[in-house]
Amino acid sequence: MQRNSFFTEKEIKELGFKECGSSILISSKASFYDIESIIIGNHVRIDDFCILSGHITIGSYVHISAYTALYGKMGIELGDFSGLSPRVIVFSATDDFSGNSLIGPTVPKIYTNVCGGKVVIGKYVQVGAGSIVMPKVIIGEGAAIGAMSLVKNDIEEWIIAAGIPAVKLRERNRNLIIKATDLFSNEK
User: Fold this and answer.
1) 3-state SS, one letter per residue, for the chain
2) Could you list the residue range(s) of the whole structural domain that residue 52 is in?
């Protein structure tokens, strides 16, 4: 019989997160770096083979699907009811590829030029499979990003965007707010 692949509640508490809510499922196959800088809300699920590194704040009712990577050197925030589909990558920092600097974590910092900024993924946002989110991007509340998109600019609230780079396709329905409000009121 195979053991459940999720950490127990006790094991999650012992991992050393900065803050950790309740009703959390974290795969024992996920990897964490700088774990003392990661905050996790309530009702969060982190699936197999995810990498979370750096300053990351995860709201409540968030799902991070398998093979997703969050590189939060300069900060990443995920709002309540947001979700990252399989193989999403979020970068809050990037190396300088111009040829003016050396690249990589093994090179002393004086020879590199890492730049970027905080990434904010708002409430009710869904990022589609295989998408990449670049540094300093704000994905507005309620936006949905289509699969295989490159998000390198801010995305307006309550739109559906897709492409390389991601662009607005149409407005997104807001009915899910009613369901979220109902869920919160039923929890009390």
Assistant:
1) CCCCCECCHHHHHHHCCCEECCCCEEECCCEEECHHHEEECCCEEECCCCEEEEEEEECCCEEECCCCEEEEEEEEEECCCCEECCCCEEECEECCCCCCCECCCCCCHHHECCEECCEEECCCCEECCCCEECCCCEECCCCEECCCCEECCCECCCEEEECCCCEEEEECCCCHHHHHHHHHHHHC
2) 9-187
